[in-house]
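ugh ok so i messed up the first submission bc i forgot one of the chains. this is the corrected input, ALL of the components this time, i swear. 812 residues overall. if the numbers dont match what u have on ur side tell me asap before i send this to the collaborators (the ones from the other lab, u know who)
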Amino acid sequence: MKALTFRIELPRLAFAKVFGLVTPRAYVSGYGAVSHEDVAEPKPHGDDWVTVQPTLAGICGSDVMQVFLEAAADNPLSAVVSAPHVMGHEIVGTVVEVGSAVKKLAKDDRVAVSPWLPCEVRGLAPCAACERGDYPLCEHFFDGKIERGMHLGNCRDVGGGFAETMCVHESMLFRIPDGVAFDEAVLADPFAVALHAVLRAPPAAGETVLVFGCGSLGLLVVHLIAVLFPGVTILAVDHKPRLAPLLERLGAHKLFTSRGRELVRELGDHLKAPLRKPFFGMPWLQTGVDKIYDTVGAPSTLEIGVRVTKPRATIVMVGVAQPRRFEWTPLYFKEISLLGSNAYGIETLGGKRAHGIALFLELLAEERLKLDGIVSHRFPLEKFGDAFMAVYDKRRSGAIKVLFQP
Amino acid sequence: MRGVSFEMSLPRLAAARIAGFFSTSGFVAPFGPVRLRELPDPKLVADDWVTVKPVVTGVCGSDIKQIFLDADIDNPLRALISFPHVLGHEVAARVTDVGPSVRRVKAGDRVAVSPWLPCEVRGLPPCDRCKSGDLSLCDNFTRGALAPGIHAGNCRDVPGGYSDRMIAHESMCFPIPDDVTDEQAALSDPFAVALHAIRKAPPEPGETALVYGCGPLGLLTVHALSRLYPGVRVIAVDLHPYLEPFARDMGANDYVMGTGAELIEKIASLVSARVHGVRMALPWVTGGVDRVYDTVGIATTLETAVRLVKPLGTVLLVGVGTPRRYEWTPIFFREVTVIGSNAYGVESFGARRMHGFEHYLALCAEGRLDPTKMITHRFALDQYREAFVAARDKRVSSAVKVVFQL
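and heres the new structure output, hopefully the right one now
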């Protein structure tokens, strides 16, 4: 079958890095780490595994960081990845074959895929994290009957959705309700990520929150707060003014497009918080917003974030940018809590406990979400260069969520 | 009066930088920003102020950072302080004179002086933060009857305790019980800092707490955890063998020396956590300690702390290190919470709600605490250069807590 594979091989990495200095296209030319090639048909790893034909597969920001080799050399997640692997972890598709022990699913079912590979998928008894439903915190991403890897799309033994076929454990599949289109359901993974991040520190009615970054993750954070947490004022930050109408539709109250000092000043004006001006460096506010959902997680957003919150506010860090120095003094001075948020698992929403993807599909079936406008581009797999470039240069392409149609 | 003052003058800063390049004592040369000077006696700001004579004043790590010019140029707290100022904010003193409307203390009283300068001290009605007792989060450090300053020792109008005379608002004075010594009382400020930080994420019986750094703040954190939180295993971490007896004396169950990968492996074996090596990076740990109290707060300690704490664990940032880049991926991947902690205010501890100083002095009077063994070096005011160099070059001096006897 044809698939997009990622190989950590010195000649490919060297080619990409060297010619990448000339043009970013080099990374996605087919001679870099990613290429479109013929690979062996995937095999089930047990009789409780299911064969799925991906219909749509979204490109995640982490895929782009991987393809353009942007991870720092000291990133510890290289310990929970194995290569080569077929990429892609935001997947909807159709069941084509089920193993003999599969109970929940049948051929032709339409499904959304949870890509995580915790104990159950590995044929292990659940660890403490898995028992709680915190699958991304599983202790056994290194163990069991499949290779190391936290989720499919970065595990050698379980290929991702940028492929014609894939095999997954039945626990990874969620049936898409009738009446819900693949086009909406394909946002299951990023929506569940956004939901988990908001539930790490849910906003209360009357509070003002700031959402940093309006890629698909940020837009979904805005929308789910608007729908599920009434009475919250939602401020959004992104450099692209063209997002304003979409943000308004999704429920944001205001978009700030400036950066750095200017952004701090504008937020201070908007929140009527007096500006503190040190002799050098960035101005800051001693009071400000109640919560920040930082879907960028870059040094620049964190540096501004700690400057524009109230004392004892919470910043949820859900983006995965490269670490760099930032001036973090307000974190201790204002006693801010910085909470990391990783993916999703069993979540509690409105007193109900269910998997994040199941909650998303239910909200779609109840027609409570209005997600049109988030998916911006679709490409066949062989056009992977154009697809990754569209995400890489969003300013030019106008991309938000880019999909493959394998 | 005589006091050690800090002048923000470019020629003096430049001279200290150049002299400091050749030897540590160059930073405190007479042509630098730090000098013992004859100064005009401070006048009482209002009728509810008192004059005190410092008896014992502790040297704080933040003073040492300032004196040895460690702060970054973009530190935002510069917006909240004023120059020149007399340094020193860990003070036990005698009241020498009281204004006509003072009720709390009388001439001759022994007092511990809380250095913070919030609304009440500035003659302002209390802001919301002050109303709730969060004095170090006050909104008004730049307003009212005083020049900008967060506490005595960095405000032009309220000289600190490296002097023979101070003024204080009566609310800053806490009578020292009879059976508590002046040296015990001089540790009120750092102890209150430690207790405030612990209270933000107190350990449960059966948990393991790692205290990073065995300077005075770290040792007081160890002391508070071991004496006030029974059933908690306290692991103290620093780099120097001479600190081990102090850490054990304050109640640490284990003392571990090291940094980076070596430290991660040592701690992991103490708490039976699994270590996974990562090429070109610090190792990865499954499991870990429940809480980290980071009293150093620099990039290297944070980088190790977010790797050693369990998934969903808490890292308290108490130290005020200079910000630098560190690899922070585990914050999001392990869903770690990093909480900043700033000083103290009115606190609830046990069944009592009172100022952090009152908790400490009461616990000392009850015999539950006595951290004075950590005072290793005592100096007269005239020896201020030796005092600061001893506190700076701990490898040479083997100093833990350095104090002035005045």
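quick check: Chain B has a mean pLDDT of 96. that seems consistent at least. The first helix of chain B runs from residue 10 to 22.
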